[in-house]
Design a protein that fits this description.
The complex is a heterodimer of chains A (about 450) and B (about 250). Chain A is built from ten helices and 20 strands. The relative contact order of chain A is 0.09. The mean pLDDT of chain B is about 90. In chain B, about 35% of the residues lie in helices and about 25% in strands. Chain B has about 250 residues and is of the alpha/beta class. In chain B, helix 5 runs parallel beside helix 6. Classes of the chains: A alpha/beta (about 450), B alpha/beta (about 250).
Chain lengths: ~450, ~250
């Protein structure tokens, strides 16, 4: 019997033909050969059902069922752009509207000093970069088991290669700013970034996802993004993702991080938007004394579904990982945390810490928390904790006795709950920005 | 200011207050003493509006001419009622400064006054925190988080001083305090005492009343006030213990 999900795969295969037709001149480039390999791979795969262990709590049918348009327009006036910039953040901004790079609105001429950025096709032609691109990329095309990664590679138009040379400290942040606008038909786009940090280098990447639509005009789309990141020895990266997508959209974030010895990767994630949100954050340790930090906060209301899947693959001795995820779920929102920490037999002296705490604010809100520690080494320090609770009534009462109304008292306590995650962000402007977003969402009905 | 008539209240189906009567006039300080389980904390919580306590039909609590029992918790605060908690809660993630700013402006707004700008509030907080003898750094710390028992009670007094209530209820604020912290509590109360501000001091011990001289002392026993007098009653209780009052109390249940 063929899998019932196959018809959805077929629809994307058909969609690829129209996508390909609109590519024009790019079809002769080796880059396009890779797209074809990816779509070829997609033919052999099927979308996961809930019987799949990694997708037990997160059905994908609604995400893969619509017939998406692959060529939404990318109109946006400069005036509307302003409110999506981050106050006081020292950053070069790249603006994407409905997944398409708007060169005219971006700081392409003023990129952070020391940082190289180019389309992947250009990097493929470049003698210094082509091997790096091939190595990072191959995992997501010919070999992948994940249909969403194959789809991302096949449909990726605005892909980027970001390169930081060895011993370069990039002080200015790179801000990838996504803005979505309401379109007649639901649309689909596939941002893709390959990021390479040379030995001893350092950079800050900020991704923000926004929607221009409001109320009934919220945009309907599927953002299927992928990041592949390689940190060479002693490199350091702070990676922020602040997400306020439309509450009619689907947001799938696949980020894989490969870390060489002594490197430090820190991920700070805030998910507020999206009707269906799934984060797959996978860190693979390739050398000793690696540090991986994952911090995530989410707040779901209405029918929002928010899933945080993490993997830290401790394959090497003397490495550290820290994970803190906190979420609040109101109305009928559904949250998922699945944190896998794999400590291989050789990974002695591993230090792994994981904590997940959630607040449920309504009878119908649901949280599925699944810490998953698989430890095959015997000399390690690993701990994990998962708590699910309610807003503390005596704290609400206390605040009310001081003249704060009930709604505001509850907001204050929720802000404080998520602050424990936000306060780990090293950048003050981003901390303030994230807090502002949280306060705005809490105050909204 | 406050008139309580025949107040009956229960928690989890157990009647704790069994017909309590009390009248507090503007400017008066009333001490309410009583053994464990007599209903002291229930009285404080009912006045502040905690929802776990069920007030029975026929109970009357009038505050400044209004039916207090009809008011929400926050409305009571906005109309000038302040409860100093026996066990103040810890709120991680909300700094003391943020919290104080929020409550000052919330109450000012209710009173039709303009919100104070941040620098002025900060100045006010810095000034009043000296009164309770806490270091300025406490303003930056999360509310009550990791504070000692005494520090938490001083923080309660700071909030009282900033909110300038009409009627303050101190629920066993002196329990567990050393003599220095207790003197701080007494000092704040004495400084805030004035003609149109009243206090209900709920306490288990007579000691605090050496520093705050009450106009009336009441003994609460088995959900009722069984004896009232002036400050000398407190000394008599200290001397003879509560058994003496218990024996004198009419057995009506």
């Amino acid at each position: 019997m063929t899998n019932i999900q196959d018809k959805h795969i077929d629809r994307f295969l058909t969609l690829f033909q129209s996508f390909e037709g609109a590519l024009n001149g790019e079809k002769g480039h080796p880059m396009h050969e890779w797209r074809r390999k990816a779509i070829h791979r997609l033919k052999d795969l099927s979308f996961p059902t809930r019987r799949h262990e990694e997708w037990k709590y997160t059905p994908v049918t609604k995400v893969v069922s619509p017939t998406y348009s692959v060529n939404p327009n990318s109109e946006l006036s400069e005036k509307k752009l302003e409110k999506f910039k981050i106050d006081d953040l020292n950053a070069a901004v790249l603006v994407f509207v409905n997944g398409q790079l708007r060169k005219d609105l971006s700081d392409l001429d003023q990129l952070p000093q020391g940082l190289q950025l180019m389309p992947m096709s250009e990097a493929l032609d470049h003698p210094d970069y082509q091997d790096i691109v091939k190595e990072l990329y191959i995992s997501s095309t010919e070999k992948t088991e994940d249909p969403f990664l194959a789809m991302n590679a096949a449909f990726s138009k605005e892909n980027m290669f970001i390169y930081v040379p060895a011993n370069t400290h990039v002080t200015q942040a790179l801000h990838i700013l996504h803005i979505n606008t309401p379109e007649e038909l639901p649309y689909f786009y596939n941002p893709q970034k390959l990021i390479h940090l040379g030995k001893g280098s350092k950079m800050v990447l900020v991704e923000s996802y926004n929607d221009l639509g409001e109320g009934d005009t919220k945009s309907e789309y599927f953002n299927n993004m992928q990041n592949v990141i390689h940190l060479k020895g002693n490199a350091q990266m702070d990676h922020y993702k602040l997400q306020r997508e439309s509450t009619r959209s689907s947001h799938l974030n696949n980020t894989s991080i490969y870390q060489d010895r002594d490197s430090v990767y820190s991920n700070y994630q805030l998910d507020l938007g999206g009707l269906w949100v799934r984060n797959n954050l996978n860190a693979y340790h390739k050398g000793e004394n690696v540090t991986t930090n994952f911090y995530g906060a989410f707040l779901g209301k209405g029918n929002q579904h928010m899933d945080a899947h993490t993997l830290v693959d401790h394959a090497i001795p003397h490495c550290q990982s820290n994970e803190l995820y906190k979420g609040i779920l109101d109305d009928k929102a559904h949250g998922v945390f699945n944190g896998k920490v794999m400590v291989h037999k050789d990974a002695q002296k591993t230090n792994a810490f994981q904590q997940n705490s959630s607040l449920l604010l309504s009878e119908k809100a649901v949280m599925d928390a699944k810490p998953q520690l698989e430890i095959f080494a015997d000399d390690v320090k690993c701990s994990h904790g998962a708590t699910i609770g309610h807003l503390d009534e005596s704290s609400v009462f206390f605040l009310r006795t001081r003249g704060i109304n009930e709604k505001r008292a509850k907001e204050m306590l929720q802000e404080a709950f998520l602050l424990e995650v936000i306060e780990n962000m090293p950048n003050e402007s981003l901390r303030a920005y994230a807090s502002k977003w949280i306060a705005e969402k809490l105050a909204s009905e | 200011m406050l008139k309580i008539k025949n107040l009956k209240a229960s928690v989890d189906g157990n009647q704790i207050l069994k017909g309590l009567n009390l009248e507090v006039k503007p400017g008066e300080v009333h001490a309410i003493m009583g053994p464990n389980g007599s209903g002291k904390s229930t009285l404080s919580n009912v006045l502040a509006g905690r929802e776990d306590y069920e007030v029975e039909e026929g109970s009357i609590v009038e505050y400044l001419g209004e039916d207090l029992l009809e008011l929400d918790v926050e409305e009571r605060a906005k109309k000038g009622i302040f409860l100093a908690f026996q066990y103040p809660v810890e709120i991680p993630g909300v700094t003391t400064a943020t919290f104080l700013k929020e409550i000052i402006n919330s109450v000012r707004e209710a009173q039709g006054k303009e919100a104070l700008p941040a620098p002025q509030i900060l100045k006010l907080m810095r000034e009043k925190i000296k009164m309770v003898d806490l270091p300025q750094e406490f303003l930056k710390r999360s509310l009550n988080e990791g504070f000692s028992g005494g520090e938490k009670k001083r923080n309660e007094m700071l909030q009282m001083a900033l909110l300038e209530p009409q009627l303050a209820i101190l629920d066993e604020t002196d329990s567990g305090l050393d003599i220095d912290a207790m003197k701080v509590v007494a000092n704040v109360v004495n400084e805030l005492r004035k003609q149109d501000r009243s206090f209900i001091i709920v306490t288990h011990y007579q000691r605090l009343l050496n520093y705050i001289v009450p106009d009336f002392v009441h003994v609460l026993h088995n959900g009722r006030i069984v004896k009232s007098g002036d400050k000398s009653l407190a000394l008599e209780l200290e001397d003879k213990g509560y058994d003496w009052v218990k024996k004198e109390a009419p057995q009506t249940v």
